[in-house]
Every structure is written in C-alpha cells, then in structure tokens.
Design goal:
335 residues; alpha+beta; four-stranded antiparallel β-sheet; 32% helix; 26% strand; elongated
C-alpha cells in the first residue's frame, strides 16, 4: 500500500473503525510508529487477516519477510476484515475493494483457512447455526454445513477456527467439540478408550463423627492411613531406615561377644568331622543367619508402627488442647 519498505500494523475497534500504522526503524536502534490512515466499516471488527494478493498466503510480519525488507522486497498485500454484517477485502488504509454483506444471519466468528494445496477460503460461523465458506478474493459462497446440532449457537463467538479448517467450539457449559469444515459429514465413532479402570476397587473414605473429632477419638489407625495414602507398595521413609540401621548396630554391639564366640567355634571344625556332619553344620549356620535377618525386619516394622502411633497420639493431644483449652493450662502450670 506504500512505496517503501515498512511493517504495517492494523487495528480494528468495536465501533467499526480500522486504523493502519507503519512501523519504521530509526537510527538509534528504536522503532517509530506513524499513522497511515483509517476507514469506517459497517459494524464492529471481529477478524482481521493480511493476505498476499498474488498467492493468497498469509502475509504476516514473519522473520523472513522482515529480513527481506532490507533488500526492498515488498509483499503485494491485501487485508481481510470481517464484521457481524459483512466482509471486505481491500488494500489499506483507505482503498475500498470487494465487499460482501451477510444476507441471512450475523457472523459470530471467522477465519481464513487452507484446503490442502488447492487454495484458501474465508470460513464464518453464523448465528443461524451454519458454517459457510467464501472464495477469496471474490467472496462468493462455495459451501455450507450445519453445525447447530453439535455446537451451542449461543457461544459461537467463543469458538476458534484454525488455519487448517478445524472448528473448536462449545457444546455445553463445560464440554467442547472439534469439527472439520472440509469433512465428509459422516459422524465420528465414539472412542472406547477410558482414562480410568472401572474394575479397580476404590478404598472407602475414612469417616469420623463430630464428637469423635472433638474428643480426639481415633477411628482409623496410623497404619490404615498410611496404607490408604501410600498404598501397599510404599517404601519405608529415610527416618525409618535410619532408625532401623541404628537399632541393628546396637543389637550387633550387644551380641558381638556371643556372635564372635559362635563364629569362632564354627570356623574351627573338629578334625574327625565327616562329610554329612559338615553339611549339617552349614545348614544350621545358614538357618541361624536367616532367623537373625527375620528378627531385624520384624523390629523395623515395629519401629515404624511405633513412630506412626506417636504421631497419632501427638495429633490427638493437639486436638484436645485446641478444643478443651489444655494448652493454656499447661502454660499456666509451667509459669
């Protein structure tokens, strides 16, 4: 629209005005914005799209297009402006071009879409429940499709039309659907995939009455809560592992004398020991080691249960203090 290289910025308002600005670089590295002109349309602007007049492709200010400005490579562009009452294709900022008025119903949403490699078209969603496609640049109707049986026509203004021809719109207050304007009209079969397993049993929710909560009565045990939250395969915490390691070290230090004597006696076999006696002695030693390992695991489990029981008792005590005022009594006695 101008005789020198620049970037054009187009702004549409809800009052039907469409303004054009040019963005030019300055010597100090900054950019200058200058107004080129404006024009008045018949209604509020709901969609603006710059197009290449030679190929019909979008004429956005991409990195390649901006880089070609230094070589004086200009784009022969036109602008598509859509309002609820019509559409216009023109060269900004003041030149008038092709104009199309919607005859039946107002347009709620519009976009320029591409059909494979055949070309581009202007697709609009109208208040009467139809989606219509118009040719570019003649703006002649090339096809219609009914969408009111799928989408909510009261929320067509919130729908989105993608450049590939997909319509993403609302079917209800909290449900959306995607349609394709270039489809064959056949219904898409409902998928049988599910995001959850309905056969999996759900553990019951822990329940407790108000009186039990006030008095601190515990309805479930810490072991039940741990199983409900973490599951049966939850590994022990670092604190439990450290406590079990300390207990094991204490047990080893206490039984070091007896273990060393038994190990010494087992390490020096009698001189007249036979083969079957040797096998019997090895089996007894291995059985004793397995028993020691089982005792360690039992002690680890007891420590974990005791720690959970202590936490539960502390929570109960805090509840009683918060309800009955026990915390203030303890502070008064401490003074």
């Amino acid at each position: 629209a101008i005789d020198y290289s620049s970037i054009l910025l187009h702004v549409g308002t809800n009052l039907g005005h469409l303004a054009t600005f040019k963005i030019l670089p300055e010597a100090n590295g900054r950019y200058n914005v200058q107004s080129v002109g404006s024009m008045s349309l018949d209604d509020r602007v709901i969609y603006i799209a710059p197009l290449n007049a030679d190929s019909g492709r979008p004429a956005y200010a991409s990195q390649t297009a901006v880089g070609n400005l230094r070589n004086s490579v200009k784009v022969n562009g036109v602008l598509v402006a859509v309002t609820p009452t019509g559409a216009r294709i023109f060269k900004p900022a003041t030149t008038k071009g092709a104009h199309k008025t919607w005859d039946t119903a107002a347009c709620e949403a519009a976009a320029v879409v591409r059909y494979e490699d055949l070309g581009y078209a202007l697709v609009g969603l109208f208040r009467d429940g139809l989606a219509k496609a118009y040719s570019i640049p003649a703006l002649k109707e090339i096809g219609t499709a009914r969408i009111d049986h799928v989408l909510d026509i009261r929320r067509l203004a919130d729908a989105t039309i993608t450049p590939s021809g997909d319509i993403l719109g609302w079917t209800g207050p909290s449900e959306m659907a995607m349609l394709n304007v270039w489809g064959t009209g056949a219904p898409v079969p409902r998928s049988h995939d599910s995001l959850f397993n309905p056969q999996l049993p759900i553990p019951p929710r822990p329940t407790i009455s108000n009186l039990q909560w006030i008095s601190g009565t515990q309805y479930i045990t810490p072991r039940d809560m741990d199983l409900l939250i973490g599951g049966p395969d939850r590994p022990p915490s670092k604190r439990m592992i450290a406590q079990a390691r300390n207990d094991e070290q204490q047990r080893r230090s206490q039984n070091r004398g007896a273990a060393s004597s038994s190990a010494t006696g087992a390490a020096v076999p009698p001189q007249d020991e036979g083969y079957w006696a040797y096998m019997q002695r090895q089996i007894n030693e291995r059985t004793e080691k397995l028993g020691m390992m089982g005792d360690s695991m039992d002690k680890l489990q007891d420590n974990s249960a005791g720690w959970a029981q202590d936490v539960g008792n502390f929570v109960q005590r805090q509840k009683r203090n918060a309800v009955m005022g026990g915390e203030y009594c303890e502070l008064w006695r401490a003074r």
